[in-house]
Amino acid sequence: xxxxxxxxxxxxxxxxxxxxxxxxxxxxxxxxxxxxxxxxxxxxxxxxxxxxxxxxxxxxxxxxxxxxxxxxxxxxxxxxxxxxxxxxxxxxxxxxxxxxxxxxxxxxxxxxxxxxxxxxxxxxxxxxxxxxxxxxxxxxxxxxxxxxxxxxxxxxxxxxxxxxxxxxxxxxxxxxxxxxxxxxxxxxxxxxxxxxxxxxxxxxxxxxxxxxxxxxxxxxxxxxxxxxxxxxxxxxxxxxxxxxxxxxxxxxxxxxxxxxxxxxxxxxxxxxxxxxxxxxxxxxxxxxxxxxxxxxxxxxxxxxxxxxxxxxxxxxxxxxxxxxxxxxxxxxxxxxxxxxxxxxxxxxxxxxxxxx
Length: 356
Description:
The chain has 11 helices and 11 strands. 52% of the residues lie in helices and 16% in strands. The protein folds into 2 domains: 123 residues, Phosphorylase Kinase, domain 1 (2-Layer Sandwich), CATH 3.30.200; 225 residues, Alpha-Beta Complex (Aminoglycoside 3'-phosphotransferase, Chain: A, domain 2). The protein starts with a helix and ends with a helix.
């Protein structure tokens, strides 16, 4: 039994099928990406992901420790390859983003190392730094307020990264959205709401959402229809801060959308920190301001595109809450359900104001 196999077989938190896959994959990765002087040291399973297994894989070259991350697709007993294809897609999009920022020492993305397409296995280099959400939470808990200049600068750099990502990642085969396509984005969210609850939105509300969406889009400027690259989960938990700059990761759902999608998604993510027990509204607002300055440089988003995304993300939030309520079960689930229902009532009040 090889050293790699011995170490993996000792890991009780890794199931048998994944042990088998890892025993085959790690020697291949070592052979393909490392040299003979590298020795496999350890592997750690990182729980908390639904359709993906994530591992930290550790090698050593003399005194140098080499850390990598492995994302491994879940393959159900049915043999459905959907999650394998998702890992392959994520690798391709991560590689695409990495190439855009490869020579930038301040604005960076995680470095993809190797894709094993048939196995749905994606190795990447270790990411250096601490997550922005962790740093923001830590800063909010400190009293009195400390100097957060470095943290706020990282939010400014995050805005710059997003702007650069959109400017560099051009796909001219689709330059503009039609009115119908933009309307369809809201209609899709409504359709998903109705899948889980026919009662969440009544016919009058549906008609008002449709009418309001159309009236907003009809007032778009020419630039508002432009198609740009989007990360799709652009938020502080997918950004790392280090001494030199920031690193963005998790491109599993990236694609294309209207120009300010990621911008407003990030602002909404920062607003969510206001729900925490330990919160500093002044720090959250400062983070939003620095991020906006980095992304927008001069001016603010067009009024109508802002209204559109306020409506879109509100409807999306209703969809997520309705979905969460439907999945709650048991004693603990009933407690969470009450929390979600309260948030749903709050969000419905926001929706009513937006569609007047």
